[in-house]
Amino acid sequence: xxxxxxxxxxxxxxxxxxxxxxxxxxxxxxxxxxxxxxxxxxxxxxxxxxxxxxxxxxxxxxxxxxxxxxxxxxxxxxxxxxxxxxxxxxxxxxxxxxxxxxxxxxxxxxxxxxxxxxxxxxxxxxxxxxxxxxxxxxxxxxxxxxxxxxxxxxxxxxxxxxxxxxxxxxxxxxxxxxxxxxxxxxxxxxxxxxxxxxxxxxxxxxxxxxxxxxxxxxxxxxxxxxxxxxxxxxxxxxxxxxxxxxxxxxxxxxxxxxxxxxxxxxxxxxxxxxxxxxxxxxxxxxxxxxxxxxxxxxxxxxxxxxxxxxxxxxxxxxxxxxxxxxxxxxxxxxxxxxxxxxxxxxxxxxxxxxxxxxxxxxxxxxxxxxxxxxxxxxxxxxxxxxxxxxxxxxxxxxxxxxxxxxxxxxxxxxxxxxxxxxxxxxxxxxxxxxxxxxxxxxxxxxxxxxxxxxxxxxxxxxxxxxxxxxxxxxxxxxxxxxxxxxxxxxxxxxxxxxxxxxxxxxxxxxxxxxx
Length: 515
Hints:
Number of helices: 0
Structural class: mainly beta
Distance between the termini: 84 Å
Strand content: over 45%
Number of domains: 3
Radius of gyration: 38 Å
Number of strands: 36
Largest sheet: 7 strands, mixed
């Protein structure tokens, strides 16, 4: 059995803290077909989330934040090159990490734009490596090319909120070229409480098919996978993470392996996330309810100003943005309580959110059984000598309306009454009465909307509203609170006094609602 050898090195990439490296001696080639090798890459990152509530936002801590990852491997075959796609979430200024292993101790070409962090070998059958790059007009993919056909497994990870002037604060390597099922990892000193430690366990071994990893307790696994070549040793990886200094945890595998472990820490940017603030107007109303979400009071006072606003109106509709505009409009078609959320991002990719509540109330029930005369004039009675009620085309909404016509030659009071009363028993609350009215021509007749409350035959309350008629539709309305709820009834009238002979007026969309 080959023992461990240890060394500690400074984070020479950017003058950060020291890390520890334990290299391995080369293993004999006779063992390569029977032993799996494992390389582990430990990454330490700083993360945080930022949130705010309606008009009360908290400053977000600027810490590295994981966006997404992509992975690729050679599958069943030995191949001399491997192409890995750049994560779709990347924006300029992010830090990309490329973590990969190959089934020989060789470096690939194609990474001239990347900076190497660490490289370690488990004998001559495995090399594990880590690289980083500051994202800048990224291509769709990168290709790793080797001189011979081998197994390759790679993971590319995208992070925002990293100090791009000095992104790596510490790094180190451990390796063991022996047959084990428990894989150690290096410890790193100086990891802050907001740092995010990430460990990538990568393995290679005998041709027994795929295997599994068991992550350490308290860690979140990001990805696990292996190549699958039945007749050749495979390579694979498990990547886990945990906030803060997690020590040097071990991970186990379902088969025996050898391994290489590299560790690094991403330094948090001195930048601050925006402070998101959100106001929604109106905050309540009757559905369908149009609202405007306004995040214009959001602030970002550092060198990376606000770039985009993204609005989620919380009703399952499509998200609006990201966009440059700080406001967005939306209409809630259904009643309910909704949470509007805005996410404000700056040019460095840092973001925070704010929320606001909206209450869309159900439309009130119209107590008028025949509001628009669409099929008949039932429920309505014309009053006045020679006054008739007929249905007429050309309603305010729909196809029909009611027409009150003075068929005589003298002026009379022409009245439309709700025969039998639409409200036969009053209830507590405020009644709102509304109707749309017009005249046949530009007469200047005045129409009165009258609501009377009766207890038996005794009138105990009245409310009136007046409007001057014209040939265009006009709305007239009033409100009323019953004086003896549950003990009275309401009588509705619309009338024109001194309606000239041969003249008429029209009524449509009559409503009585209780709120």
